[in-house]
Amino acid sequence: MFHLRTCAAKLRPLTASQTVKTISQHRPAAPRTFQQIRCYSAPVAAEPFLSGTSSNYVEEMYYAWLENPKSVHKSWDIFFRNANAGAAPGTAYQSPPPLSTSLSALSQAQFLVQAQPNVDKLVEDHLAVQSLIRAYQMAYCQHIGVEFMFINDLEQCQWIRQKFETPGIMQFTNEEKRTLLARLVRSTRFEEFLHRKWSSEKRFGLEGCEVLIPALKTIIDKSSEKGVDYVIMGMPHRGRLNVLANVIRKELEQIFCQFDSKLEAADEGSGDVKYHLGMYHRRINRVTDRNITLSLVANPSHLEAADPVVQGKTKAEQFYCGDTEGKKVMSILLHGDAAFAGQGIVYETFHLSDLPSYTTHGTVHVVVNNQIGFTTDPRMARSSPYPTDVARVVNAPIFHVNADDPEAVVYVCNVAAEWRSTFHKDVVVDLVCYRRNGHNEMDEPMFTQPLMYKQIRKQKPVLQKYAELLISQGVVNQPEYEEEIAKYDKICEEAHARSKDEKILHIKHWLDSPWPGFFTLDGQPRSMTCPSTGLNEEDLTHIGQVASSVPVEDFTIHGGLSRILKTRGEMVKSRTVDWALAEYMAFGSLLKEGIHIRLSGQDVERGTFSHRHHVLHDQNVDKRTCIPMNHLWPNQAPYTVCNSSLSEYGVLGFELGFAMASPNALVLWEAQFGDFHNTAQCIIDQFICPGQAKWVRQNGIVLLLPHGMEGMGPEHSSARPERFLQMCNDDPDVFPKLDDFDVRQLYDCNWIVVNCSTPANFFHVLRRQILLPFRKPLIIFTPKSLLRHPEARSSFDDMLPGTNFLRVIPDSGPAAQSPENVKRVLFCTGKVYYDLTRERKAREMEADVAITRVEQLSPFPFDLLQKEAQKYPSAELVWCQEEHKNQGYYDYVKPRLRTTINRAKPVWYAGREPAAAPATGNKKTHLTELRRLLDTAFNLDAFKDLA
């Protein structure tokens, strides 16, 4: 096995003479204890020895020598004799006589060095030897290299030393070797079978790292032995089909039928390529005879994007089974070397590994180190010596191992699984291998790496190497080896024959997160209805009272917070709610119904705008906190609210994975400002938006995105609603004809997009998210200034039983009383409604202009807006928004409004002109633009110039 850039390959065990040269030549006094002996240079009886020598082992040899000088190698005998006689460290070792020479024929004086006077350099000599030992511990030789000396925990370092510095520790029984060979046969022959049957198909095979399959199975076996019964895995596409077949144990015919181009889809959605799909399977682990559940999370081609998703799903499964230490549920993440080094999401995910609300208590990371990324040489792809250096930031030990040495790989994987079980911290296994083919089976790697691939062409496959080794050792014979191959080939052929009978692809067979029992009620499919999301007044009052109090004795809160809680209490007495209290009531009511709620994001405990205050801090006692939400009901579900690290990509992926685990939880991620979702766009584009279409996997995650033009500059003004709306799958040119219009529309959409203008509607949409008979992602553009706007209040009456989320809020003022006299209908959404109503009142046009709020933008409320348009037969229709014309909602709303009215009249626009930035950075300009917007909205003559 060759290494392109592996530092360990540059190191070789030192000879005795080289060892001697590394320390000082000064002569100390004659030592009388081992503490003095160990300061001397040590001889090397055999080359492999020093690479694993520990000072403890030398100490044991010294005491053995004291009892019987013949019990150690002659070189050590001479060394200890000279050291005891007081020889200088640089001269204590003398080469033993050649084998052809009789020791008795030589004078012992030839090998013993006369004692010499002491020199005060003993400390320097000691440090020199320690430096030598440390050098080996930082890059062990042979086929295993270990990085751990940066770990600042002595117990952990000593644990690793024992695993790698104890001579003879890596021993395998013949049965273990035969099992390893059988696993290599399956891994190798699976790829060869696919190549024979579908030579022109991409499959992103595992050739060059076939040892990955026994590596993963070893980690799973050892973890199962330690008590783990659920393993959640994430990986890129290389080797995924092999992992599905030989680790997860998916039926081979289900994999093979995917190669049939005529296969029809039985399930909804567009589907995805076979090497992106996931799987969930519960089976018996034959090594431990314990049940084990394996889940491989579906992943797009964005490689490391699955990392935080897997961690979130793992955290959720641990949470739901009460596994507070990660002893039952664990995660395994697979990586490519180029992606592991190059993608920032790896760093973000590592930095979640030890945070209380995000830790999964240790992940085993396995890097398939191809020593190349697509066509890019490592010298052009990373600045660090190893692709795994990012793991050092969390003190994770890193085990480099030659992937052409299966026994070394299995040993390292056993150690990695034991590390995770013992310390519940991350660990990295770096499989230094190669990619026999190009990036995929159709790619020609010789274009860009000719010398590398000339070497690769000469490499024997690892199965051949290992089989030859075991045959030479007498562990197996040639007929047994050939029989093992023939047995697995027969399995593949039989599965291939069965796969031809598969005419329909059931993508649900590839689900990585099944929700048993959720989609049925008493054995029947759940009806497409949604009950009222209202709440009785007693519960509203009770939640409000807790929200405005401190349910813990002797707890001192901040004076400013006391005023906030007092204001909440006054609102409860007056039967009104603001935005924060409406959220509190929605959460509190769901907790009573047994729904776990998890709110995560930057500064969500207090709220970016200091409006939430779900975690109270004692002003006199450090780290003493109180979460009143967890003191609402005797047997309520738990409420988890957690400030996240300063990460969007990683944390949103984590929360998506958490929401994936169970439909009976409300999982919310709040961006500090709406435009912060920009840096999590991969999770939105690849998982949230198309997740159900690609993988028939529903997910009810909620994104809270603060949005609104407040004159504060282009940053943090817009949550970019146009991006979410552009990805909605409803047809702008088709008026839906559906029964149960509102619920059926929600079922058919890919996600729900809302911009609520009242606290009550916010309350209802959160509750509706759980009461629906299915799960869809929910995007909410939340306000900033409306959090404290005196008009943005709702009455308890809008939240009582019988009330629901309002997709559209019609005008209820004078205009609605005489609709035939209305000249204009302004359709809008969100905060701009309050600017429009204030301006309409100032102009005394309440009877002339109706203002209709579109609260749910997608799926579009065609039915309700049709009624609104028909209600005002003589009115001009205007879409009004505060965002620029090329942003916001206009491009989404206009064609759908025209479809609603069958293009009977034009739909005018009132708002800001097109612009590159979301908002101006000048306050005066902002106000000027707002004035122009309002003038346009209430000036009918201006519309004709803006068509």
TrEMBL record:
One of its GO terms (biological process) is glycolytic process. It comes from the Eukaryota. Its cofactor is thiamine diphosphate; Mg(2+). Its main location: mitochondrion. GO terms for molecular function: metal ion binding; oxoglutarate dehydrogenase (succinyl-transferring) activity; thiamine pyrophosphate binding. Gene3D superfamilies: 3.40.50.12470, 3.40.50.970, Multifunctional 2-oxoglutarate metabolism enzyme, C-terminal domain (3.40.50.11610). CDD domains: TPP_E1_OGDC_like (cd02016). InterPro entries: 2-oxogl_dehyd_N, 2oxoglutarate_DH_E1, DH_E1, KGD_C_sf, ODO-1/KGD_C, THDP-binding, Transketolase-like_Pyr-bd. Pfam families: 2-oxogl_dehyd_N, E1_dh, OxoGdeHyase_C, Transket_pyr. Keywords: Calcium, Glycolysis, Isopeptide bond, Magnesium, Metal-binding, Mitochondrion, Nucleus, Oxidoreductase, Thiamine pyrophosphate, Transit peptide, Ubl conjugation. It catalyses: N(6)-[(R)-lipoyl]-L-lysyl-[protein] + 2-oxoglutarate + H(+) = N(6)-[(R)-S(8)-succinyldihydrolipoyl]-L-lysyl-[protein] + CO2. GO terms for cellular component: mitochondrion; nucleus; oxoglutarate dehydrogenase complex. Its EC number is 1.2.4.2. It is found in: Mitochondrion; Nucleus. Residues 577-789 form the Transketolase-like pyrimidine-binding domain. PANTHER family: 2-OXOGLUTARATE DEHYDROGENASE, 2-OXOGLUTARATE DEHYDROGENASE COMPLEX COMPONENT E1. Belongs to the alpha-ketoglutarate dehydrogenase family. This is 2-oxoglutarate dehydrogenase complex component E1. It comes from Apteryx owenii (Little spotted kiwi).
